[in-house]
Amino acid sequence: MCVMVLCSKGRLPSILEKLREMDIHHMYFYNTEEPRRLGVPFLSLLPFANLLVCEDCVEDSAGLHERIILVEARRMSIPVLTETTLTKIHAG
Fold first, then answer.
1. Strands, DSSP E only, in the chain?
2. Is the dihedral of CA 14, 20, 24, 26 positive or negative?
3. Letter string b/e over residues 10-20, b meaning 16 or more CB atoms within 10 A of that residue's CB
4. pLDDT (tens digit, 9 = 90+) per residue, 37-90?
5. pTM of the model
6. Nearest 10 degrees: CA dihedral of 21, 88, 27, 33?
7. In sequence order, which residues have a C-beta less than 8 Å from that of residue 91 and are 6 or more positions away?
8. Separation between Cα atoms, residue 59 and residue 68, nearest integer Å
């Protein structure tokens, strides 16, 4: 499974802990705290993702770059889970 993660560096360990039991072969990480622009290479990896996980605040108040990723993932029918949803599934 290939997973894309959109979150801050501070939330990454928590998300990784929840993903630990999944059979993940590749993971792409986008740090939402970086002041850089979203690069085309990162977006070009989206079609290869099986799942997109984002920090709760990313989905609620996504900036332009994060919003592009979320919109494109949904357009491509890639499941998008928030950290809270992932926690519920993990506890499930």
1. 2-7, 26-31, 51-54, 80-82
2. positive
3. ebeeebbebbe
4. 655 577 888 999 999 999 988 877 667 778 888 899 999 999 999 999 988 876
5. 0.85
6. -140
7. none
8. 11
